[in-house]
């Protein structure tokens, strides 16, 4: 695969001086290496000699010494700084690291991450389980939502799977319950419901298979590929599925611009952001 197909040429990692900083730096630099990307490290806060020494000491410990890295220091509102930096630096992928048991979890993966995933100009990778030693990414789950952006998300999921040496990609089609407009009252209506479910599953799997079949063979030939239809709430269902199968990475379309009603009633990716099942890659084309 050449760089013309590389979706993540430049990665930005927004970091804080927390107990998990070393782990996050090691994990982020490792991802940048596998993605063959330039890494921009951004700290929103005051620049001090102690902080500079700290980050330099950590960078001396990364595994891939030839990785191109730039360090940026900015003071101000974290959301605005990260948003503007992604635009100014032509960032393709924004990475945010947070562990759920830390206070920073609410800071990065709470309201700021939700705002960034809706407004930022690039894709976003949320790391909830970084590791100092590499943990292989064996299984990637990607949404097969019937939406214009889905082919790009699926393509990028397969691209990432190849770069990380994954063994399996599962494409999940979430089918809303309201598409089954049958009230189960007896055996006849139950049979009718089951037939309708099978038809919907066949329709969704055929649609997704067409997307997969159109991918370059070098992205698919080494991978075990599975499709899975799920009936339930979008976002919630795929998040639960990713957790149950212990996926190492969940790939989703970026959320669309929302109305006031969408802010009141959570949907799709909001369910996942409120309770992250694993690392999540949010693709914006």
UniProtKB/TrEMBL annotation:
Annotated InterPro entries: Rossmann-like_a/b/a_fold, UspA
Native source organism of the sequence: Saonia flava
Protein name, as recorded: Nucleotide-binding universal stress UspA family protein
Annotated family: Belongs to the universal stress protein A family.
Pfam families assigned to the protein according to its UniProt record, in alphabetical order: Usp
Domain of life, source organism: Bacteria
Gene3D superfamilies: HUPs (3.40.50.620)
Domain named UspA: residues: 58-126
